[in-house]
Amino acid sequence: MLDGIAVLDLSVASVGRIAAMLMGDFGADVIRPGDCDTSPPEAPMWDRNKRILDADRNSDKVIALAADADVIITTGAEAEAAEVIDLIGERNPRVVHLSLTRFRVGDEVPDRAADGLMSAATGIGRRQSSSDGGPVEPVFPYLTYEQALWGATCTVAALIERERSGRGQLVTVDGMNAAQITAAATMVVDPDSPPPSTAVGAHGPNPPYSTYRCADGNWLLLGALLPKFQIAAFKLLGVADILTDPRIDGQHTKLYSVENRDWVRARIAEAFATRPCSDWLTALDEVDCPASVVADAGEFLDHPQSVALEQRQIVDDPVVGSVEMPWTPVDLTGSRAKRPRPRQFVDAACWSSGSSSTAPGAGGSSSGGSSSGGPLTGFRVLDLGAVLAGPLAGSLLADLGADVVKVEPSAGDNFRGIGWHYNRGQRSLALDLRNPAGARAFREVVKASDVVLDNFRPGVLRRLGIDHESLTRVRPEIITGSITGFGEVGPLAGKPGFDPILQAVSGMMAAQGGDADPVFSSIAVNDVTAACAMAFASCLALYHRLRRGVGQRFDVSLTIVAAYMQCGELVRYQSRPPVQLGGLDYPGPSPLDRYYRTSNGYVRVWLPSADTAIAACLLPAKQSDGHDLAAQIQMTLESLPTDDVVSRIEGAGGAATEAITYHDLAAEPEILRDHYLGALSRADGKEFFVPARYATFERGRAVEILGPPGLGEHSRQVLESVGISRADIDELVESGAVWEGSAMTDFAVSLYR
Predict the structure, then answer these.
(1) Does 361 have pLDDT greater than 50?
(2) Which residues have a Cβ under 8 Å from the Cβ of 680 and sit 6 or more positions away?
(3) Where is this region: Disordered (predicted)?
(4) Where in the chain is the domain with CATH 3.30.1540.10?
(5) For the domain bounded by 198-329+492-541+560-571, which CATH number is listed?
(6) Residue 383 designated active-site
(7) Is 455 helix (H, G, I), strand (E, B) or coil?
(8) Residue tagged active-site, from 115, 527, 555, 593
(9) pLDDT one-digit tens code per residue, 241-298
């Protein structure tokens, strides 16, 4: 897969360690300057498959390695590797330099605190549901994990581009880019409407998609996001009359409207309180409605489904001994990830095989042409995905320059109205795969395509005759990828799975809630990461095909990405320090590292010590034993405006940022100038703000705001592009095998989570 790719990990922050780990998992030769004395508790996992070279980042040893590296990874503290970076373009023009910088947070801030500060600065903290509407700190460093995965994805995309152009380039993925993906379900702004109230409690705003306490005291997650599941669940619970109530009147989106959600939730909660959790889970399974017990934090590697998917890996680390850790978040069947090997500490190192950085045009053209449309220009992806994870995967690949076609039935993806923003950048081909003529038309499109993605449940592809084996008879080099809830093996294989189901079963909800109620994450953490993992796997498979000439199939499940998104916290060994848990409206891990209320909003602070707080005039010079630091700091801050607090703390040597909303972001000229958000107009002129550019490539595409396609808007265009005649297309449309539609003109923000 990435065999022969030399990766020099010069990162200081953990995000670079993790990105390099992901590349090492797929065969890259990774060398990291450093030592074991400064390693974080998660290092046995994040440095697996690497050689740790005892050398300074600016040493002659490292400069020599950089001259022949294919990839160099930095994380913003460039001063520690300044000489190496200065030499990149001069001595190694084929190197891909991945820069994983923070967003509005200095390099002096520790990694975990930096993640919290970026959550505040990007609006994520203010979007989480809470009891009082204040910001909530994610107990897991979601932005760090997303930034690492997306950074690795963009790096492989740049390697693909290098196969054709013969040149490397600078690729920048910063903390705001990570937030754009992490918050993909909610980072859509209607400037004419106020930010939604988040004071809905720990269980979220959508009653059919929420947690409930059962008669035995155990918690259950009801995952009835779609109408078909709501109908089945409400009938089972004996509350089917909710849907015929005049306040709902059969309109399922009214279930989570502000005026209805409280009484709807109360009815559902009353029903669940009548029977034990296990009884309800059995009954819900019988009616095929997604649901899960809310499992304890930190135990996901022991779950039978995790074991079946080989997520629990064990290595013998040279420093801490036997270590249990999650495996990679994608499974490529044609070129599987390498089994984890323990980090190796060395005094000297050279690349283990000939670096491809000195072999211009290996596997591709060395004409020097650029890809102004993005690194994946020239590749076509067919996206059969529905709801969130599948469509978002296609949208991310479109952002990288691929021609992505959303293939959907004539009735459309049943989530396209609510989740229109997940389909941005794609063209729509609407056809009936169960119609023989529609299936033949689809196969003609496959012949001219490179990747086919789906998120059907196991078995559906084979029944439709479009599984990987069938498609290889049409296009031998085709790459196919599937997202499922639980994978294709194990006790839960084939079960329906949505993001909060995995939040519950993986222990995420329990970890966020700590000793309080479990917490439903407003960010669709597992769905969006599955989409990012699909993009990563697609790029890996495309790169492998460029070098080896063969396609393959890959799988991504919400189960394995749920392990990845808490990978550092799931690492276990005998001397491992305890993992931080959350709590009610969790503000952060300590009085010096958390959210506070100010006179006009909220602020996220990091103070190196109590002395810093004293210097910032947040605490008196003398503290009595047992004094509540958080209460004292809060008392001071609640009388000060946010700007004053930030100025005081930064002046004293700490870090602080206002906890803002997405609406605040959209109003910042710098955010629009730097293409983090951009305006997307409806046909009537109504504007929304949506993510604009997810990464910056030195030779990237011109920035444009990618819009959502209408159902079947591009059916004729796509079919004509593969050689189907106009007359044949007319016949397909008349027979109902293909649907032709128009542009999507009516879309709005839906607050379903």
Answers:
(1) no
(2) 424, 687, 688, 689, 690, 705, 707
(3) 351-372
(4) 198-329+492-541+560-571
(5) 3.30.1540.10
(6) no
(7) coil
(8) 527
(9) 999 999 999 999 999 999 999 999 999 999 999 999 999 999 999 999 999 999 999 9
